[in-house]
Write a structure and sequence with these properties.
- With 536 residues, this protein is of the alpha/beta class.
- Helix content is 42%, strand content 19%.
- The protein contains 22 helices and 19 strands.
- Strands 12, 13, 14, 15, 16, 17, 18 and 19 form an 8-stranded mixed β-sheet that branches. The chain has a 6-stranded parallel β-sheet with strand order 2-1-3-4-5-6. Strands 8-7-9-10-11 form a 5-stranded parallel β-sheet, with helices on both faces.
- A hairpin with a 3-residue loop joins strand 15 and strand 16.
- Helix 1 packs across helix 13, helix 2 packs across helix 3 and helix 16 crosses helix 17.
- The longest helix has 19 residues.
- The radius of gyration is 25 Å and the shape is globular.
- It starts with a strand and ends with a helix.
Length: 536
């Protein structure tokens, strides 16, 4: 095959890790491009720290000036400002991102981050029209599996039923149900170590190569297709099994019913009883099971091969010479009030806000991203809601960014809960709404009363603010809503400067203030994982 005489830089979390699915892309891309470079943010953060990782990446871009950079953004591995810096360092480079989880992230992440990229690859293909409605250009469906990695191999079918994946959503209960009904099942994947009752049937965490082997050795492979919110969505496992010319029973999903012709290509179950019945049936009917596996394999090779899709996508991209314009600031003024300003009378505030369009809150040691105003105002204009709420880092001069508050799942839990855990520094509102609801803002700040609801608030799941640890005292601090960013720093010190590790831990305990309990519990978990990995 003739290669494109171009250079692509793959900058994806875990792309050097044999356990990560992104490895499926590297082979096909190497076969397409004259030069393929990989940069693993995970590896770099753990060995050099996040700040250095971002700097090293920009230097790599400046040196290589690739024709394309392919991202698969997990959350905040790259600082949000980095994409505009790339355009200045290498103006001809086209930026491409893969979005895999639009079913949980489109409204609060994807539709905003997509604005940074020239092209966007979308796995949840039922969201393609949503991108178009948002005015996002250069969107391609990208769903399936690498048919050079997931492929048939000579292997005897020594396992009856296998599930490879994490124990999220309904999977735990389904596996438990099958075991209790005598099904000879094996499981694999991260997370099952938390359930000792499954220890005897757990293979452990598998590399991609090991997954291919296990799939080929299994008579029946299971595919559960729910996300972390327990909603149905597209899952790559079904395509990986079919590409291996193996038989899969998948949880029923309308999306799959549209992609495959009928039950001669795919078998789906609607509940645990239906799954049990179909497992028992297809274990007894080898020829029928193998014919369905053959049919699914043929369809996957034709329509869902990453190799074919990547070739088609880059042929289209190469013909399109246009690039997106850099993000520009929205020409509207934001007034940043301090918390004590909320006590002023309404007439004083009206005078002070006369020349402003929007209102947000600030504190001396807080730091706002350069693109904060753009994204929060855009979110208000697009959603037509009254309040925009972004994610934020918690930082300290001695610790850097050591926690990150994620709004989305707290907001999904309940309005009352969210208002007690939220922080005024993450809010932006129209001036008129602020004036008209001044008393509600006062009660929210002073008492944690409900201000934000699903009706009036839109979430931007990008950390656009750094909040100093000692400022606003929250009514509730709930550990599950904080990403433990200091763990990256500890891993970095463990690799490079282990002699600084004790002082870093001590600083965490001294300076973390109201978040100290989160730090203590997280340190305990980190220590347990370390001991389990190396000694237990």
């Amino acid at each position: 095959m003739v290669k494109f005489d171009e250079k692509i830089l793959i900058a994806v979390w875990g792309c050097h890790d044999k356990y990560y699915a992104v490895n499926q892309w590297i082979g096909p891309l190497k076969s397409l491009f004259k030069k393929t470079i990989t940069f693993d943010p995970k590896e770099q953060i753990f060995t050099n720290g996040k700040n250095n990782m971002n700097a090293i990446f920009l230097k790599k871009v400046e040196e290589e000036k690739p024709d394309y950079i392919l991202f698969w953004l997990i959350y905040d591995e790259f600082y949000i400002e980095i994409y505009e810096k790339i355009r200045k360092l290498s103006p001809r480079t086209k930026l491409i991102n893969f979005f895999g989880d639009d079913d949980t992230a489109f409204d609060n992440i994807s539709k905003y981050k997509a604005l940074f990229f020239d092209y966007n690859l979308v796995f949840q293909i039922d969201y393609l029209n949503r991108y178009k409605k948002e005015g996002v250009r250069g969107v391609f469906p990208f769903i399936g599996a690498s048919t050079s990695i997931y492929r048939p191999i000579e292997a005897s079918k020594e396992y009856e039923v296998v599930f490879i994946g994490t124990p999220k959503s309904n999977r735990y209960e389904s596996i438990k149900y099958l075991l209790s009904n005598g099904v000879n099942i094996k499981i694999a994947g991260a997370g099952w170590e938390k359930y000792p009752e499954f220890a005897s049937i757990w293979f452990g965490k598998l590399t991609v190569r090991q997954s291919v082997e296990i799939i080929n050795k299994s008579k029946i492979n299971l595919s559960f297709t729910r996300n972390y919110l327990d909603k149905l969505h597209f899952n790559s496992r079904i395509f990986e099994v079919m590409a291996s010319k193996s038989f899969v029973i998948s949880e029923y999903f309308d999306g799959y019913a549209k992609l495959f012709k009928n039950d001669k290509e795919i078998v789906m179950f609607k509940d645990n009883k239906d799954l049990l019945d179909k497992i028992r049936y297809y274990l007894k009917n080898d020829k029928e099971r193998e014919q369905i596996a053959d049919n699914g394999y043929n369809r996957t090779l034709k329509f869902f091969s990453y190799q074919k899709q990547l070739k088609y996508i880059f042929q289209k991209i190469r013909l399109n010479k246009s690039k997106i314009k850099p993000i520009k600031e929205i020409k509207l003024n934001v007034a940043y009030l301090e918390i004590q300003d909320i006590k002023k009378n309404i007439n004083t505030l009206k005078k002070e806000l006369l020349n402003y369009d929007y209102v947000a809150f600030k504190e001396k040691n807080n730091i706002s991203s350069d693109v904060r105003n753009f994204f929060q105002i855009l979110s208000l204009l697009k959603s037509k809601k009254n309040i925009s709420c972004c994610d934020y880092y918690i930082w300290n001069k001695n610790l850097g960014d050591y926690l990150c508050f994620t709004s989305f799942y707290a907001f999904e839990k309940s309005d009352v809960f969210f208002n007690k855990i939220a922080n005024p520094y993450q809010i932006m509102v129209e001036k008129k709404y602020f004036i008209d609801n001044l008393e509600s803002f006062r009660r929210f700040i002073q008492e944690g009363k409900t201000l934000m609801t699903k009706t009036n608030t839109t979430i931007v799941s990008i950390p656009l603010v750094k909040i100093y640890s000692s400022n606003f005292k929250q009514k509730i601090i709930y550990r599950d809503n904080y990403l433990v960013k200091f763990e990256n720093n500890l891993t970095y010190l463990l690799h490079k400067k282990i002699y600084l590790l004790p002082s870093c831990v001590l600083n965490l305990l001294i300076y973390s203030g109201q978040y100290r309990l989160i730090i203590l519990k997280s340190l305990k978990d980190i220590l347990y994982r370390f001991l389990r990995k190396y000694f237990l």
